[in-house]
Amino acid sequence: MSSLARHIADSNRPHLTLVVRVDLPLPDTGDFADLRAIPITLGAPVLFGAGDRRVLARSVVTSAELLDLHRAVHAAVGAGEDALHTAPGEWTPHVTLARRVRVAHLAEALDAVGGEVRGHARPLRHWDPETATVTPVAELRSA
Question: How far apart are CA 129 and CA 51, in angstroms?
Answer without folding.
Answer: 25
